Amino acid sequence: MSIADKKSEVEQMMIEACKRSNRQIDDVNMIAVTKYASLETTKSVLDHHMLHIGESRWQDAKSKWEQLADRGTWHFIGHLQSNKAKDVVGKFDYIHSLDRISLADAIEKRAAQLDITVNCFVQVNVSGEAAKQGIAPEQCAEFCQSLLAYRHLNICGLMTMAPLDENTENSRDVFRGLRQLRDELNQKAIFNQPIHHLSMGMSNDFQVAIEEGATWVRIGTRLVGKEE
Ligand SMILES: *Cc1c(COP(=O)(O)O)cnc(C)c1O
């Protein structure tokens, strides 16, 4: 299948999921995850007007970013070591993996030097799997409260990853949990402004994520395949 065909298949699936859950397609954004893709494929993704690009490691993203930066909006979706924050801040428009104070410190420091504000998602480990990154849901309110002191961070929403499961219905509780957590944080008025965005859903489970309220889905394999 060509990239154009894959794109229209994904868009069709997004539309179906929106219909099932009475949502507007304009409320759901797609990030094309190019972490498996070559420079050529990433160019082709942009040529096909998929302008939100997701990468999870700076080493892999570097050459693509250097050549294509101004053509898209860049999302850092992978685990970020604090000492690597300086590579990413100022280049990526969104960081989806903020899950600890040491990382907030590192992002803040670099953003202050550059005099910019960085859009961040707080990553939450809703499923509670030991191997997963993210802050525990019970600690999320306190963590978010601490983030208010960081002048150069703009917290736009929450992010999670569901367990890899053949049966995507098992992801539903995780996605619903993230939505409920967002609503609780807003009810408690933790932030100066209510947060809106939910970054959740990947190639295998993005329809369920949309049904549960995703505003950003992150899709790699189904759009660009894998080409190590
Ligand atoms: C790789 C990755 C994706 C995309 O995964 P696919 O299953 O290939 O769609 C989404 N989110 C994160 C955080 C990832 O690391």
Please explain how this structure is put together:
- The chain is of the alpha/beta class and 228 residues long.
- The protein has one domain (3-224): Alanine racemase (TIM Barrel), CATH 3.20.20.10.
- It has helices spanning 3-20, 39-47, 58-68, 85-88, 101-114, 140-147, 172-187, 206-211, 221-224, and strands at 29-33, 52-55, 73-76, 94-98, 118-123, 153-159, 197-199, 216-219.
- It has an 8-stranded parallel β-sheet with strand order 7-6-5-4-3-2-1-8.
- The relative contact order is 0.16.
- The structure holds pyridoxal-5'-phosphate.
- Pyridoxal-5'-phosphate binds at residues 33, 35, 56, 77-78, 161, 202-204, 218-222.
The CATH architecture is: Alpha-Beta Barrel
Q: What is the CATH first-level class name? A: Alpha Beta
Strand content: 15-25%
- Any idea what the shape is? globular
